[in-house]
Amino acid sequence: MKKTLIVMLIAATAFAVAAVAFATDDAAKPPTSFDKPQAAGVKATCPVMNSAFTIDDKTPSSQYQGRYYYFCCAGCKASFDKDPAKYLGKK
Question: Is the entire prediction scored with pTM above 0.85?
């Protein structure tokens, strides 16, 4: 009985820790868009893959409705340029 209780307590603790990690992960992500062009070294989140990265001199970017978007790769930029609303949750 004690072993079962200990295993359940460990599992509950692991679940709680994982929930906190996932909840704070998105809050800590850099922005997906900017109001002006960004310099190399700024952190951004790709609006297509939702992955964080650091902008460099060759980072693909697009401007849409007055905002600047940066992408982790050229393929993400191409996908975004075809249908920006799809990636901005406006559909």
Answer: no
